[in-house]
Amino acid sequence: MSVYIDPRKTKKVEEKAAPTPTAEEWMEKVQRMDNEELGRKIVAGFGALFISPLVFMFFWNWIMPAMFGLPVLSYLKAFGLLVMARLIFKHD
Questions:
Q1: pLDDT 10s digit of each residue in the chain, 92 long?
Q2: Boundaries of every domain in the chain
Q3: What DSSP string runs through 9-63?
């Protein structure tokens, strides 16, 4: 059995890369957001910023001192560890 491809029926698919937004386009987008949506995003960002070290501190203090004899962490040390880990391991 043979398969023949009709060259008239094949389509060339052109891939277009998404253009990167300029600073002006980004500012227009931010200005179009209503204040409520922008406020929710800001509150969610701050919430994640301050709650994630608290969760990390609780899990660390629950597991690590008992298993490995490591010291108990305070909130600021947990925050510092998370910032340091993000700087080292986050690849954007």
A1: 777 777 776 666 566 777 788 888 888 877 777 777 888 889 998 888 899 999 999 999 999 999 999 999 999 999 999 999 989 998 76
A2: 23-89
A3: T--PPPP-PPPPPPHHHHHHHHHHS-HHHHHHHHHHHHHHHHHHHHHHHHHHHHH
Please name which of 57, 58, 61 lies closest in space to residue 80, comparing C-alpha atoms.
Answer: 57
The token pair at 89 is 């391991």
User: What is the dihedral sign for C-alpha 47, 50, 52, 54?
Assistant: negative
CB 61 within 8 A of CB 73: yes
Give the sign of the dihedral formed by CA 70, CA 73, CA 77, CA 82: positive
* Residue whose C-alpha is closest to residue 60's, from 80, 76, 74, 46: 74
